[in-house]
Specification:
Layout: E1 4-11, E2 16-25, E3 33-38, E4 42-51, E5 59-68, E6 71-81
Antiparallel strand pairs: 1-4, 2-3, 2-5, 5-6
Length: 100
């Protein structure tokens, strides 16, 4: 994935309060970074836009947490691989040698 990603899904429950989206490197799951927090439920629609150009390329856990009035109701995560920076190419390529 690269660039700005539109995150779609469902964030609703009985007695809905809010939902949050966050990400963390797969290599360091405790390093949660918030993407968005919203106070209206969403059913099968756009949850948020995530500008992935602001984070290094690697694998991340993208986590959705839905809260009801008493606290966290449900959490779900998916792993995504970011690749915003293509590998460098040689600035002065050399012709291949031929052997006979």
């Amino acid at each position: 994935m690269e660039g700005t990603i539109q995150i779609k899904g469902t964030a609703e429950c009985p007695d809905f309060s809010r939902f949050t989206l966050s990400y963390s490197p797969v290599s360091d799951p405790e390093q949660q970074t918030p993407i968005a927090e919203y106070f209206e439920p969403v059913h099968n629609g756009k949850l948020a836009d995530w500008d992935t150009t602001l984070v290094p390329d690697e694998d991340y856990s993208l986590t959705l947490t839905v809260f009801d009035s008493s606290g966290p109701e449900a959490t779900d995560s998916v792993t995504v691989r970011l690749d915003n920076h293509p590998p460098p190419y040689p600035s002065h390529p050399r012709a291949q040698k031929e052997w006979s």
